[in-house]
Amino acid sequence: MKKDLVSVLMVNYNHADTIEKSIRSVLEQTYSKLQLIIVDDGSTDNSVEIINSIDDPRIELYEEKENKQICAVTNIGMKKVRGEYFARIDSDDLWEKNKLEIQVEYLKNHSEQKICFTHAAIINEKDQIIDSELEKLYAVNYESQEEWLETFFFIGNCLPMTSVLMTTKLMLEIGEFNIAYRQLHDFDYWVRVAKKCPMAVISKKLVRMRRYDNEINNSNTSEENMTRTYNE
Predict the structure, then answer these.
(1) pTM (predicted TM-score)
(2) Starting at the edge strand that comes first in sequence, how are the strands of the sheet with 115-123 ordered?
(3) Domain ranges of the chain
(4) How far is 54 from 33, CA to CA, in rounded Å?
(5) Predicted confidence (pLDDT) per residue in 11-32, tens digit
(6) Coil, strand or helix at 196
(7) Which CATH number is 6-231 given?
């Protein structure tokens, strides 16, 4: 049976310490027909050298010379998608080996669905699974678009970007990420998806999301980022 191509997008900024593990978690998937698009957002560490050291024809690296922020580089990467399906992974997160295989099979068997997510485990800097309220937040599933929207607006974002698989057709229908957002870019995107079609969640922890004791990325809890989050 002919397999459809899955395009996986990874954006990176200064994650030399984790990016190789993230890349290999994609390349070692049991579903192997994939295109791995990596957009480096002007990293000042040796991320690019690490990416270039991995010899696999499925990797496509695009380098930005200056930092443009996550939504801009995500939009650049989305223009490179060639597959029938589209997935996202952050350059410090990990996938279980059968993640894509399970999701592709699910979407093929549920033709009414155009997008699906999975539950997530939370890991620390040492790759150890930790107890986190985030894991409980992501362990949800609703049937109706109304329930999703109600949850988004009264509780918050409960869908991990790194777990998504959607049809490329839906990706094109939803359009680009809004570059005005930096903290809540995925929240805005999921709201737009929920307004358009149902969303499904596979109740298995097929991704491992990394959180740090002292966050240095856009998810941190500095006063500046907290203010920006509330404004967005």
Answers:
(1) 0.91
(2) 59-64, 34-41, 6-12, 85-90, 165-167, 115-123, 200-210, 94-95
(3) 6-231
(4) 17
(5) 999 999 999 999 999 999 999 9
(6) helix
(7) 3.90.550.10
